[in-house]
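Run log // design_07
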């Protein structure tokens, strides 16, 4: 899969309430993949705002997207609306059928799940939604990046950069991915070791869980509804 002879079409889904780093972190990597074009597609082609208010504009509407070799599905609080949007989910399914790789970041995995792409797949997502993966028929794997055949999933937010580097290596080889990593000087040295529930101080974790309690409950309701639609058995 690492030959550079074939030009690659890489495309991402854009939607209202996206988490911009789920999009722009991987973009920083995947836009540098040799012999490729990276474009962003949104419903209707209109500009949207991310969860923090950053304005983002797609390159084109979903209907104008070419057949994609790599489908990039970001997450964010706006994922809730997408999971009930038949037009967008249909587009995701159609693009996924012909893609070399499908790459989800954060709760983008839940969008893939709503489109029926996670059945039987090993996958990960943001820690606050990790427990929802079985509702889509997925096998949860508590890793920063998980690869299952042509499906690549990254955990929360910044892990999208790690996942994108893995995708770049799968497409063009390790040396190409390492060159990209060096170009963007990706050598993280976080000042604190609180980036996962396992390492964060108890008080920090409790506060973080409280902050996302409402959206997590809403996501569970949506996931259970999707599970019924997909025919996935709910055990609890």
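design_07 sequence
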């Amino acid at each position: 899969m690492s030959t550079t002879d074939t030009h690659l079409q890489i495309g991402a889904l854009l939607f209202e309430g996206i988490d911009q780093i789920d999009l722009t972190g991987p973009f920083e990597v995947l836009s540098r993949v040799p012999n490729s074009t990276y474009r962003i597609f949104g419903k209707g082609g209109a500009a949207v705002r991310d969860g923090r208010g950053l304005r983002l504009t797609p390159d084109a509407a979903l209907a104008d997207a070419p057949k994609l070799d790599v489908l990039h599905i970001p997450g964010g609080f706006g994922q809730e609306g997408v999971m009930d949007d038949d037009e967008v989910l249909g587009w995701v399914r159609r693009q996924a059928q012909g893609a070399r790789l499908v790459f989800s970041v954060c709760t983008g995995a839940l969008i893939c799940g709503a489109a029926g792409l996670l059945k039987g797949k090993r996958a990960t997502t943001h820690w606050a939604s990790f427990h929802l993966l079985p509702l889509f028929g997925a096998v949860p794997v508590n890793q920063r990046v998980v690869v299952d055949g042509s499906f690549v999933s990254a955990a929360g937010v910044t892990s999208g950069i790690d996942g994108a580097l893995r995708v770049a290596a799968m497409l063009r080889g390790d040396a190409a991915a390492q060159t990209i990593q060096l170009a963007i000087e990706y050598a993280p040295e976080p000042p604190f070791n609180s980036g996962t529930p396992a390492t964060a101080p108890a008080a920090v974790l409790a506060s973080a869980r409280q902050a996302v309690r409402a959206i997590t409950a809403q996501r569970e309701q949506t996931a259970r509804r999707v599970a019924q639609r997909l025919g996935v058995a709910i055990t609890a």
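The chain has eight helices and eleven strands.
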